[in-house]
């Protein structure tokens, strides 16, 4: 009798393992393909907002005004984008999407933020001791930013029973680092209806 019970338990365990293995499938998809599973903020939202807002900021008067006055492309630094929404959002990913759109436009120059600047300075300091003189990078040759972009991600949630509406609102501002003047303010909203 005991051996029959053991055999049954073993068989059930095998069946559970087999069932678990047979339910999961993995398929490679294009990184540009839009896939919404949970309804939360995702990579598609991040890219769409970054593309639209950077397209807007680059086509406002501040850029041409600066280029005309200085005869040069403006240098921009992307600062802090604070997540004040109800869910965890990797703001670093959104910041990278913004930087990519800026750089790929060819209309502005982009410099590293404070975190990466410190890393690069550490590397430069290391070079002063260990790199050959002809390959050492000099101090005091960094490109100073003319403008700084920063902003917030907010959300409003309304739910009832198994239905939910989420409104994401991204606000970005661009300010002149010399004068503190705000030269552009933009916002982008994404509204999602989720039914479970």
UniProtKB/TrEMBL annotation:
The lineage of its organism: Bacteria, Pseudomonadati, Bacteroidota, Cytophagia, Cytophagales. This is Penicillin-binding protein activator LpoB. It comes from Imperialibacter roseus. InterPro entries: LpoB.
